[in-house]
Amino acid sequence: MGxxxxxxxxxxxxxxxxxxxxxxxxxxxxxxxxxxxxxDVIMIGAYLVFMCMSxxxxxxxxxxxxxxxxxxxxxxxxxxxxxxxxxxxTNLAVLITAIGVSYFLQNMALMIFGSNxxxxxxxxxxxxxSLAGGALKITGNAIVTIVTxxxxxxxxxxxxxxxxxxxxxxxxxxxxxAAILMGxxxxxxxxxxxxxxxxxxxxxxxxxxxxxxSLTPYTGSMPGIKAFTAAVFGGIGSIPGALIGGLLLGxxxxxxxxxxxxxxxxxxxxxxxxxxxxxxxTGILGKQIKEKV
Amino acid sequence: MLKxxxxxxxxxxxxxxxxxSFEVNEGEVIALIxxxxxxxxTTLQTISGMLTPTSGQVLLEGTDITKVPGHKIVSxxxxxxxxxxxxxxxxxxxxxLKMGAYTRSNKKEISDTFEKIYESFPRLKERQxxxxxxxxxxxxxxxxxxxxxxxxxxxxxxxEPSMGLSxxxxxxxxxxxxxxxxxxxxxxxxxxxxxxALAIADRAYVLETGKIVLEGVxxxxxNDDSIKKAYLGE
Lengths: 293, 234
Fold this sequence. Notes:
The complex is a heterodimer of chains A (293) and B (234). Chain A is mainly α and 293 residues long. Chain A is built from eleven helices and four strands. In chain A, a hairpin with a 4-residue loop joins strand 2 and strand 3 (136-138). In chain A, helix 3 (60-83) packs across helix 8, helix 9 (221-234) packs across helix 10 and helix 10 crosses helix 11 (265-279). Chain B has ten helices and ten strands. The two termini of chain B are 34 Å apart. At the A-B interface, helix 6 and helix 7 of A face helix 2, helix 3 and helix 6 of B.
């Protein structure tokens, strides 16, 4: 039963990585930039939920909705102030700006909330289920996290394929100038992408801290890096890739912790990433389209 | 229909267009010919709002569109088939065509246009579920044209549609341009293949290092000695 328990924990952690990875992969696919501040939006989202729920006594659902709305706005503001003026700048300038925004968010949180960890109350009250006569317990956290991730993933894939803004996102990710010639507002599309990614980060923050309840201003940075890894692992720019990459990363991490060494778990995760990228540089689902000229 | 007045465009310190003026009347096929670096592509990109001119005006049906952002111009009735075709390689032929109708919302009308496009480009219909990146150059050019027509433009700008194509496709592409014109769409054509362009155009302008050096009825230009020497290789 140990194996199944680890697998479910892995899937649950992987679901959180997948949700975060979506933000990286969509922004990369559409704006062709790495938004390293994404991990810190998760932390802001988690603090917002904490403030609403534990400090103001609001119900969990209301708290999460407030957090989603605020993070969506935060994502759009970050894009507008920090990245939009650099639309024509070099990739390196954008990357350094993203790192700057990341530190800015961390330090802002440090000023407001202090460096002491706060104890996050789980947004999920349900205890979960126990199977096989109590030998296999699945926590409510794990179930809700996995289901949320799958539902969001399906909804997002439907959105991109079947709605007008979704179509615009695909066009912009393929060729910005050609998209403009189709009548697509590229700036609005990029802004929407940041909005969706940051809204999902708020959800990811609430779910992450429900399972790992110690919240500090640095809570977002490690999961952020791992989710970025997951996005690259699955094939950056690909939505299903983010799901597969996230889940695999979560499972590998938990298994490595359980069976090998909890100290070495992160090293093992990144070793696997390096091997995958050596074998398939575009990631698992990444594709290289050959263009005929 | 389209009027360009004293257009000046700078790239940093380099002046790409040094004040050009020309006019395209409804129903005409106008050719803009010239060598590499003469400013042909810059002209088209400025007209369709991809570049902002330093000075000068672009008027579409009397409306000043000089400062209108690129994405708003399609719905004003102007489509642009860009240099190098720029189809969306990871999207299917069908999805590419759908993108062309992005600004339109009436489903019935869109599907009528689809039928028309498939009629003029049967090959696109055959390959509608294939990724655009896997098409041959000539097929991609047809797709780029079909995609532009999906917006039902009253004027279409075409940038070097014959570039890099085999002679058979070049023939076909020029036939298509003629039929687009016959169907009532005004065409502004930029070409290095001056001979073919002049053969189908009503009037033409010759661009040299950012200035219009010659203009006139296409058939006259074809017999002009300087044109023959410089562009027709005779």
